[in-house]
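Sequence, please.
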């Protein structure tokens, strides 16, 4: 597989009501042994404080519904994707955080915790804060501010980014 090739799956991320400008893509490339996950987000919250961390947790959740309720716009995504029943942060859906710069973030990670076929139809969630990689069951990463459903890709979705 060449990185320039089309991803096997894509999640189009959109923000909740309070973060309507949040948008982007998380792309999944099936490799021989594992998966390359690439995230590119725009419209992330920013702070005027030059020392603000602007770090956002990124997780794959077990259900594929970006719906919720008044308190949690994406409550229906359920828990982190965790087919092996591991403690946090060893869930298959636990991914490294994204570091925002003026509302933009890009990051990539290679993982052997899942194959693309296992995450199709599940949700990718962007949280308001960083994952502490300690708290159970999910890392105390704050509110869910962005969501997208992982879908098979037939084309590269990078065109048309805002």
């Amino acid at each position: 597989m060449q990185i320039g090739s089309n991803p096997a799956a894509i999640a189009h991320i959109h923000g909740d009501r309070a973060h309507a400008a949040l948008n982007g893509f998380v792309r999944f490339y099936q490799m021989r042994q594992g998966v390359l996950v690439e995230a590119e987000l725009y419209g992330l919250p920013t702070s005027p404080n030059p020392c603000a961390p602007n770090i956002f947790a990124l997780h794959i959740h077990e259900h594929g519904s970006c719906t919720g309720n008044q308190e949690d716009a994406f409550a229906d995504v359920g828990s982190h994707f965790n087919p092996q029943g591991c403690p946090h942060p060893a869930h298959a859906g636990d991914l490294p955080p994204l570091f925002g710069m003026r509302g933009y973030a890009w990051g990539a990670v290679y993982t052997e915790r899942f194959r693309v076929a296992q995450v199709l139809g599940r949700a990718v969630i962007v949280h308001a804060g960083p994952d502490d990689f300690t708290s159970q069951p999910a890392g105390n990463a704050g509110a869910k501010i962005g969501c997208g459903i992982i879908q098979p890709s037939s084309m590269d979705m990078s065109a048309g980014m805002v």
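The longest helix spans residues 116-119.
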